[in-house]
Amino acid sequence: MNDESKHPDTDNEAEANRPLEINGVRIEATFAEAFDMKATRVIITAMDEIWAEHAASAMSGFGTSVIDCKLEIDIERRLLPSETPDGRPGIALLAFAMSGGDLEKQITRRAGQCVLTCPTTALFAGLTDEVPRDKRIALGKTLRFFGDGNQISKVIDGTRFWRIPVMDGEFICQHDAPRVSGIGGGNFLLVARDLHAASRAARAAIGAIDPIPDVITPFPGGVTRSGSKVGSKYKSLIASTNDAYCPTLRGITDSQLGDGENAVLEVVLDGLSYDAIAEAMRTGIRAACSSCGEHGLVAVTAGNYGGKLGRHHFHLHEILS
């Protein structure tokens, strides 16, 4: 893995600190700090794209941040019938949590309430990794009990599936899904002269990131305006507003915003590998700069905590070189 654990901060220091601009947009000599997570991919299929979309939207709802949702989950990509286990239209979702226990609890609950309930759907594992039994997430293994004793299992090519009777026929569900290591908290901040420019830059970035596999941007539209810092003056909160980038607090806090920098939006990324997140950041930043460098995007920076939060560091100058 080409991550910071193999490339200490002291390496390439001169390279990382050199001035860098893309289409007139200043790229700050800083890094995004990300941390280890547990991850899985599931595939929802249905009779048509509409039912698959309903189930995927429901399952990924309230899945923006582990701070309070306990799960970060989003649609990775839409699948053609030729790409799914049962030859029907499908959607792949990626999910990330801070622990294997949180991941299993959230996936099982969401599968039961959002996929089992949706007409015509089926649910499959989206990863083929060979992992020990205690690192697999229960899908049909748990949901089968809804069949009240009328459920039937079948093993096909070494994989167990469950047929659970429901009112439109049967809900087909794979027995379990692999749980693997992932990375959460990749990020970059788009600093603009006004909100219109920041919004346009963010949409260009997300549009470019969307086709990239193995990565998701779980916030609404892929973007958040409520970037956070660790801790708060209130003991009950583990995170609070990133006051250094709030334009209304300039003058009363240690602001990082200069003159003419009046709006900031943040793109947060989770991925199955360092390389997937680095490619998404590189593609998104370049798209934002190309689209808005002459239309109000002033700078791109990133959020970190001095290297104390996570071991994966994405240096902007390094990944954009």
Spatial shape: elongated
CATH topology annotation of the largest domain = Alpha-Beta Plaits
Task: Identify the CATH class of the largest domain.
Answer: Alpha Beta
**DSSP strand (E) fraction?**
25-35%
Residues in helix, %: 10-25%
Euclidean distance between termini CA atoms: 18 Å
Number of domains: 2
Indicate the low-confidence ranges by residue numbers. 4-8
Mean pLDDT: 94
Q: What would you say the CATH architecture of the largest domain is? A: 2-Layer Sandwich
Report the count of strand segments: 19
Largest β sheet strand count, sense and barrel closure: 15 strands, mixed
> Measured on Cα atoms, how large is the radius of gyration?
21 Å
* SSE topology string: HEEEHEEHEEHEEEEEHEEEEEHEEH
Structural class: alpha+beta
Number of discrete helical segments: 7
Explain what you see.
This protein has 321 residues and is an alpha+beta fold. It has two domains: 20-34 and 182-320, 2-Layer Sandwich (Alpha-Beta Plaits), CATH 3.30.70.520; 38-180, Alpha-Beta Plaits (2-Layer Sandwich). 23% of the residues lie in helices and 33% in strands. The chain is built from seven helices and 19 strands. The protein has helices at 13-16, 49-59, 100-115, 140-143, 195-209, 274-292, 316-320, and strands spanning 21-22, 25-27, 31-45, 72-79, 90-97, 122-125, 136-138, 152-156, 159-166, 169-174, 176-178, 180-192, 215-216, 223-224, 228-230, 239-241, 263-271, 297-301, 312-315. The protein has a 15-stranded mixed β-sheet that branches. It has a two-stranded antiparallel sheet with strand order 7-11. Helix 2 packs across helix 3 (100-115). The longest helix has 19 residues, at 274-292. It is elongated and about 65 Å long. The two termini are 18 Å apart. 42% of the residues are buried. Residues 4-8 have low confidence and may be disordered. It is found in: Cytoplasm. One of its GO terms (molecular function) is formylmethanofuran-tetrahydromethanopterin N-formyltransferase activity.
